[in-house]
Design brief:
Elements lengths: L7 H9 L6 H12 L4 H10 L3 H8 L9 H34 L4 E4 L1 H9 L9 E6 L4 H9 L4 E4 L3 E3 L12 E6 L6 E6 L9 H11 L1 E5 L2 E5 L2 H14 L5 H13 L4 H11 L2 H15 L11 H11 L6 H10 L4 H13 L3 H7 L9 H14 L11
Helix pairs in contact: 1-2, 1-3, 4-5, 9-10, 9-11, 9-12, 10-12, 11-12, 12-13, 14-15
């Protein structure tokens, strides 16, 4: 799938969702606009893929009246609301980093408004829902208490709120989600103790991330930042895991890869050493295929491998099981694929845990109930029934 195979509205969003436009891209965008577009589709597509601030920034630079005024007003209102939200999240991130620092807890901020500031030079171009902070496993409980004192509550099962006294089951979890609902805009914070999936050598890789983290400015607060190479590798892992469902991730990867021109060979070598070469290679290939080539670094990804993630970006989001089946077809180590597939079949989702509400001593039943539910859902269909999406 290339830009020429997409609808004109999708083509325009791909053209405008970047840092700057070349004369050729600007001319192509002008041509598409003058030939008539469905602006409701553009607004919906750019909102769904979280790139509307980038799209609006370029639309403002076109000839006045070329874009319908009503559309510009809708884009403007959407971006104004997002600016307020991004400012609030950036201020909150700085405040959390300061509070953790005063408590003697080292923390690395990644993704979110900070990454948008690194890539685009403006955190207000970020569109998201939460803040991500990495802490040491030994500091997770202390960091959680710092946020409790600041009005946050820990979430279990994505929605159910618990008091601090009932949080013992969370001890040692790789990520703890907290939310503050008494703010003008609800704020969600994810405290991570690892950035890697369970089938990898987490401890060794996390040590490398901490060693590469360097002091920096986080919206006025002193904190730790990821190195550029780790930013790219971890974003590649995140986008690959979710099959590139958001165009924003692809745009960020494309810009990060362009910015890392002097470190591209080193990034490829590091990703191969730690076992994430397929994620990084596919991320580079998808971003360059959709947004343009930015380097001469060769890729082992072929057109068949690119079809699935690129097509998934412009289609309906897959279910968890169908997502794992798609990842199985992509290149990678068989043992990692088998572990992922077993997790998809046996590991319960948050919704399943919440609906069953089993006591802690019966939690092992979740791993028996999920495969039974999958068999009932997918295995007992009538032979003549129409094929459905997994």
């Amino acid at each position: 799938m290339t830009i020429r195979n997409l609808q004109p509205e999708q083509q325009l969003c791909l053209i405008l969702a970047r840092m700057s436009l070349s004369p050729e891209l600007a001319a192509l965008a002008n041509f598409l606009i003058r030939n008539g577009l469905d602006w409701d589709t553009i607004l919906d597509f750019s909102s769904k893929h979280r790139v509307f601030p980038l799209v609006f920034r370029h639309l403002e630079r076109f000839e006045p009246g070329l874009v319908p005024p009503a559309t510009m007003r809708l884009f403007g209102a959407l971006c104004a609301a997002n600016t307020d939200k991004s400012d609030m999240f950036a201020d909150e991130l700085a405040r959390i980093v300061k509070r953790l620092g005063k408590a003697g807890i080292p923390a690395v901020s990644f993704k979110g408004p900070l990454l948008a500031h690194v890539i685009w030079g403006d955190h207000r171009l970020w569109v998201g829902q939460d803040l991500d902070i990495l802490v040491q496993p030994t500091d997770q409980r202390r960091a959680e208490k710092v946020l409790w004192a600041d009005g946050y509550q820990t979430l279990i099962g994505a929605e159910e709120q618990r008091t601090p006294h009932s949080l013992l089951p969370n001890r040692g979890a790789p990520v703890v989600t907290l939310a503050k609902h008494n703010a003008r805009i609800p704020i969600t914070v994810e405290l991570h103790t690892t950035l890697f999936p369970w089938w990898m050598a987490r401890r060794r890789l996390d040590e490398q991330v901490w060693q590469a983290a360097h002091p920096g400015n986080i919206f006025g607060a002193s904190g730790l930042l990821l190195s550029p190479s780790w930013n790219f590798i971890l974003l590649s892992l995140h986008a690959y895991k979710h099959l590139f469902v958001f165009l924003r991730w692809v745009c960020e990867l494309h810009e990060l890869w362009r910015m890392a021109s002097a470190e591209q060979v080193m990034i490829l070598r590091k990703s191969e050493q730690i076992g994430l070469d397929r994620e990084v290679s596919l991320s580079i290939a998808v971003s360059e295929r959709l947004l343009g080539k930015v380097s001469d670094v060769s890729s082992s990804v072929n057109n068949v491998m690119l079809t699935r993630p690129s097509g998934n970006m412009f289609g309906p989001p897959p279910s968890r099981l169908s997502q794992e089946l798609l990842l199985w077809k992509l290149p990678g180590r068989a043992i990692c694929k088998m572990r992922r597939l077993l997790a998809a079949v046996f590991a319960p989702t948050g919704i399943e845990r919440r609906h069953l509400s089993l006591p802690r001593w019966l939690h092992f039943l979740h791993y028996l109930i999920r495969p039974v539910r999958l068999v009932l859902k997918y295995g007992l269909r009538q032979p003549l029934a129409p094929k459905q999406e997994l």
